[in-house]
Amino acid sequence: MSTERVVLVTGGNRGIGRAIAERFVAAGYRTAVTARSGEGPEGTLTVRADVTDAASLDAAFSEVERELGAVEIVVANAGITKDTLLLRMTEDDFDSVVATNLGGTFRVVKRASKGMLRAKWGRVILISSVVGLYGSAGQINYSSSKAALVGFARSLTRELGGRGITANVVAPGFIETDMTAELPEETQAEYKRTIPAGRFGAADDVAGAVVWLASDDAAYVSGAVIPVDGGLGMGH
């Protein structure tokens, strides 16, 4: 496996994105992360970017290209939630989540694809969620944005699959992060009862799947949805 390749992880300063960046650094990849604030893990280049702003992303990519080289692997991880039931959900609650989670992915992948096409090699890895296909009350905006990533990856595979570029989706389930830690204990226990594995996952479980998809071992895998959810959704 060539580990000199350049990786960019969006939202790589905390949670799952940070764990993904750490795993790439440990494997020897030249790794950059985007962050609106804060810093990526040790060994990464942190660049400022807002995925809803194409100009800021272009500047961030240019900085990575100057410092590390052309981005060969992009992990679209940055995302937000604004959970509430449909009848209480405002236009902004819906539009802002879709603009970040889906629109942000579009902007990031479009910019990254230019270098990949020149190199005739690339890995596009989109971080979705079990709720994208499983559904979740109170998350119509979020689950819609995450389900859309499946169509995105599959359409991209049909466009660029002949150019040495793969596009895949990783769908995490309940992962131990700052967000899940804030849930009341009885809620956590209730969730765990629905997960065949009987526990929440670790961010590193997701990172392992992402780094595998980026590797030469996964060169013939494209348009796939890889569930990392302890059996909760099983890809659906």
TrEMBL record:
<feature type="domain" description="Ketoreductase">
    <location>
        <begin position="5"/>
        <end position="178"/>
    </location>
</feature>
<comment type="similarity">
    <text>Belongs to the short-chain dehydrogenases/reductases (SDR) family.</text>
</comment>
<dbReference type="Pfam" id="PF13561">
    <property type="entry name" value="adh_short_C2"/>
</dbReference>
<dbReference type="InterPro" id="IPR050259">
    <property type="entry name" value="SDR"/>
</dbReference>
<dbReference type="InterPro" id="IPR002347">
    <property type="entry name" value="SDR_fam"/>
</dbReference>
<protein>
    <submittedName>
        <fullName>3-oxoacyl-ACP reductase FabG</fullName>
    </submittedName>
</protein>
<dbReference type="InterPro" id="IPR036291">
    <property type="entry name" value="NAD(P)-bd_dom_sf"/>
</dbReference>
<dbReference type="InterPro" id="IPR057326">
    <property type="entry name" value="KR_dom"/>
</dbReference>
